Amino acid sequence: MPQFKDKRSQQILCEKASCSRESQIAAEIIKKIIEIFPNPVAIIDRDGRFREANTKLTSLLKIDKSKLAGYKITSVIKAAGKQLFTRRFLDDLFAEAVKKPIKAEVILGDRISAEASAHALSFGKDAMILIVFELLYKKDEILTLIEKQTRDLMKDVEKLRSIFEYSPDAIVVTDLNGTIIDCNLAMLEMHHFPSKEEAIGRDITELVSPRDRKMLKEDLKYVLREGSIRNIEYSFLTNDGYEFPVDFSASVVLDAEGNPRFFVIETKDIAERKIMENKLKQYSEQLEKLVEEQTRKLREAERLAAIGELAAMIGHDLRNPLMGISAALYYIEKKLKPVDDEKMKEMLRIIKECVEYSNKIVNDLLDYSKEIKLELENADPRKIIAEALSQLSIPENIKVINLVQAEPRVKVDVNKMKRVIINIVKNAFDAMPNGGKLKIESRIVDGMWKLSFSDTGIGMPEEIKEKIGKPLLTTKAKGMGLGLAICKRIVEAHRGSISVESHPGKGTTFTVSIPLNLN
Ligand SMILES: Nc1ncnc2c1ncn2[C@@H]1O[C@H](COP(=O)(O)OP(=O)(O)O)[C@@H](O)[C@H]1O
Ligand SMILES: [Mg+2]
User: Fold this and answer.
1) Is the model's pTM score more than 0.70?
2) Which of 125, 141, 158, 286 has the fewest CB atoms in 10 Å of its CB?
3) Which residue minimizes the CA distance to atom 20 of ligand 1?
4) What would the pLDDT profile of 315-345 be if each residue is shown by its tens digit?
5) Is 1.20.58 the CATH classification of the domain at 275-368?
6) What's the gap in Å between 310 CA and the centre of ligand 1?
7) Cβ partners under 8 Å of residue 54, min gap 6
8) Phi, psi of 42, deg, nearest 5
9) Arch. (CATH architecture) of 37-136
């Protein structure tokens, strides 16, 4: 506390302090008194500004009590008849020209009629006016007010009802025992109920799959305790017994006293979401497989390319020595006299055969590795087959049946197609060491020329069938495993394909498909 020069000034200051403390106490008391006053009450100052008002008044005027000091009384209370709260009126009042309280009709806030009685108050220099309002509801005013409020209320109720009814999520209201007392349309649809009557009165557990019923009981207990629960996955049941997955949320509704009254349960059908999730999983698995498959194919392609290069190299390098051997053989044969050793002649024949076989291998290798350039021409399919067959010696115990017609013509590289036919037919002969039948026929399916070769041979096991057309695949002692690989390359160059069907012990059918409109 600051020090003062003399005792007198200190005394005056103390008096002032106690004075302002007293007026503060008085103000508090006034505040309390007007608050417990049964009528709306206001205290205003000489300028018509609010000093105090009780809650009854502020709620009628719809103004915030903490912002009261900012309001002038004329901005919220209007005189119904005579002029009230004008500057002059206020001045007169304070000049005590008016000795008894003034009464006047006023309108509070929007439209509430009241009788105001104003009393001049003076606290020493501080002069104020106490105004007590008596509400004057007129009968028709009350009726319109009630009507309006009822209409507003009904609108709100209707709005809420339609939000409830048409919500895309299923909503069920149950009492605290779980008995259904209301539900919306989405719920009826979700559970295949024909009408609300069918659903109302049932126990909520009937809507839930038996294995989730225990969980539901626990969850509702939790809701009762904590107020709500959100997004739990449940398995629900339709009225006709189908299970479906849902996303489940529930909350408890309290009455005005804060006692729990109902459960509101909201469910979303997530079957579609689940399907999408599963699909996504499947897709990603498929994608993984595809990537694996492509990687494998790429490696295989690399390997094949390497084999191709090797084939070209070997084919090329072996060609010259083979030609040398052939020429030497020709010279020796010429020089030999007819009387010469029979054994020698036999040896020469073997050398010749081996050279021919080696030549075939070299040609196959070159064919396989060579780039294929087609020379397309319109050709008679029956003739192609016949010419190819004429280049082969058909074993006596095998019967070849050529059912291929001359029409329609096909646009192919005739010489290359003959190579395909020869390779396939030779394989069929190899597959029928004890004789049999080879049927060659053709048909047109969806714009494709389909040429098939059916033999009655040994057939092939699944593991060979899967790999058919790959180079160096052979089951034969003297095989190279390049025949079908060359066929495949030629047919693919015609934008076609080769398929195979085979039954071990019964026979095999190779089908070559080539598009008819090849350009
Ligand atoms: N008509 C067929 N019947 C049974 N197996 C066959 C037939 N054609 C081909 N194969 C099988 O396919 C393999 C590969 O044939 P190919 O590529 O012509 O090579 P190669 O004839 O030199 O063995 C053969 O070794 C054989 O096992
Ligand atoms: Mg072959």
Assistant:
1) no
2) 125
3) 481
4) 878 888 888 888 888 888 887 776 667 778 8
5) no
6) 22
7) 34, 35, 37, 40, 41, 42
8) -135, 150
9) 2-Layer Sandwich (3.30)
